[in-house]
Amino acid sequence: MDSFQNLPSLNCELRIIRAKNLEFVSKGNLFVRYYLSTANDTRVRLDSQEIPSTSEPYWNESTKLECIGAEDAMHQLKQQTVVFEIRWRTSTTFGIFGGSKLLFRAEVGWKDVLDSAELSIQKWVTSSTTSKFVPEGLKPPALQIEMKIQGPEVLHRPRRCHGSSTEWNKCGCRDGACNGRDEDIYAQTA
After folding, report:
1. Structure confidence by residue, pLDDT tens digits, 87-142
2. CA of 159: how far to CAs of 11, 70, 93, 155, in Å?
3. Residues forming beta bridges with residue 11, ordered by sequence position
4. Which CATH number is 85's domain given?
């Protein structure tokens, strides 16, 4: 066990922020189910907390994961995706909740996060297919998520300065000393 303490780690964070276009959902609860791949080709299923259904539910719920052996984890992570589902659970006559119904499913690749300048993305995700529970003619549900990666090797990777911005968070120059040249910049840890 002590040998694991000396290995560098990679920290991943997933945040379920909110959803929209769910005005068709009647009484019940909404939650987000997401699936993460592991190194041995299995999937881990996680569920957000259940909240009462509304047309624009808000969770703002984060999950943090730590992967031991950052170099191997980085390579594997680049090949993997996270599957997000918005699910609806209705209550029965006696207030007992039954099984859930899938309203939305979308996939986001960790590659998108690794390719971003800040190793973080926040975006609205929409599904390419609509569930049979979404009435025809309505806007499809959308889910706002955030994904981040932090770790010693990741934070010291070379970045390209685009020179088009004087703001460090847009070009990757963390110390604000961007000189506008197209050269390698190394991020500094706080």
Report:
1. 998 865 565 656 888 988 999 998 999 899 899 999 999 986 667 777 888 888 99
2. 20, 19, 58, 10
3. 66, 150
4. 2.60.40.150
User: Which pTM was predicted?
Assistant: 0.72
**Count of domains in the chain?**
2
- For the stretch 76-100, pLDDT in tens is 778 888 999 999 988 655 656 568 8
> Do 112 and 179 share a domain, yes or no?
no
Cα→Cα distances 91→94, 98, 133, Å: 8, 6, 16
Same domain, 84 and 138: yes
Task: Please check whether residues 8 and 87 belong to one and the same domain.
Answer: yes
105 CB-side CA count, 13 A = 10
Tell me, yes or no, whether 139 and 185 share the same domain: no
Instruction: Residue 180: give the domain boundaries.
Output: 156-190
Is 128 in the same domain as 160? Answer: no
- Direct distance between the N- and C-terminal alpha carbons of the chain, in angstroms, rounded to an integer: 29
Task: Identify the residue with better confidence: 185 or 52.
Answer: 52
